[in-house]
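Fold this: N-terminal domain-containing protein
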Amino acid sequence: MAARMTAEEVREAREAKLTELSGRLEGAVGRLVSDADWAAAVRFAARFRSRSFANTLLIFAQHQDAFEQGRVSEPFPSYVAGFQQWKKLGRQVAKGQSGYMIYAPVTARFASTNPADPESWRRLDRGEKPRPSEVVRSKMVGVKPAYVWDVTQTSGEPIPERPRPVLLAGEAPAGLWEGLAAQVRERGFALADAPDAVVLGGANGVTDFLARSVQVRADMDDAARVKTLAHELAHIELGHEDRRPEGLHRGIGEVEAESVALMICASFGLDSTDYTVPYVAGWSSQVEGSSPLEVIRATGERARTTALAILDGLPEPTVGDGDPPGLDRSSGERARERSGTERVASIRARPAAMPVEVREPAAVVGW
C-alpha cells in the first residue's frame, strides 16, 4: 500500500499540475494565433459558455491531441463533463481514456458579524461552525486541477440532442436581429439603416457615441446585417467610449468587438468566419508593442464575458452551452467555474486615441 502523501507533498503536486496547465494553455493559445484555428476556437468557446475561456482552450487543445493520436473519433469536442457527472447521465468513461485537465475553483467559508466591513471576514476551518449572529459566505480562494471527458470518450445511454434548425443561405436566425436591436436601444442608442457603405465612409456599420446612434448598411443580406449589429452592440457593451481616455488601442477594441460578434453568431449556428478571420488577424497585428498572440490572449476572456452578457438578453441560442443535455449543474457551480479560473493579464498597448465613430470596414485591404 502506497504511503499517504503529506500536506506539503499534496501542495507541491497540485502546484506542479497547475504549472503544467499554464504551459498547456500557453501552447494552446500560441497554436490558435493562426486565422483558421483562432476562428475555430472562438466558435467552440461560443458553444462552451459554461466554461472559462482558459478551460475552453485547454479542452480544445487536449481534444485535438487526442484526435491526432486516434483516441477520439471526432476532431472537435462536443459535450464535456466530469467522471461522476457522466455517471449521472447513465454513461461511463471508456477504459484507457485520459481526461482533459482543466482548472477547478477552490472555495472556502468566511464568517462575519459585520458583512459590510471587508476587514471583518474570517476564514472558517474545515468543519468549524460560525459563531452566533455571524453571516457565512463562500468565496473562491484558488484553483486546483480537475478532469473532464468528451462524450466521444464515453458510452452508455444516448444523449438527448437539441433540435437545430437549418439556416437558409443569407438569412439571419429568427429573432436575433430584433433581440440585438432591442439591446442597442436599451443602452440609449438610436438604430437606423444606411443605404450603402458609401454613406458610412466604406463601413458596414458605424457607432457614433456622441450622437448616440448606430447605423447598419441596408444593402447587405440579413446574415451580414445581424453580424454587423452584434459587432456594433459589442462596442457599446465593452465600454469602448469610456476606455478611450485610458489609451484603448483601436486594434484591441476591434478584436474584442469582432470576437464577440463571432461568438454570438456561432451560438445561433451562423458562421461568420469568412469575414471575421481576416478582420481579427488584421487588427491584432496593428497593436504596436504587442504581438497578435498577446492581443488575442488579453482580449479573449473579456470578449467571452461580454458575449455572455449579450446572449443572456437574447432568445435561447440554438447551439447550447457545452454541457451535455440533462446534466443539472448548480448555478453557483457554473458561476464559480466561469468567473474564477481565467487569469489573463491586461496588456499595455501604446496609447492611441480611438475615434468617436467606431466603424466596421466593408473590406480589409492589404491584410
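Residues 163-169, 341-356, 363-367 have pLDDT under 50 and may be disordered. The longest helix spans residues 7-31.
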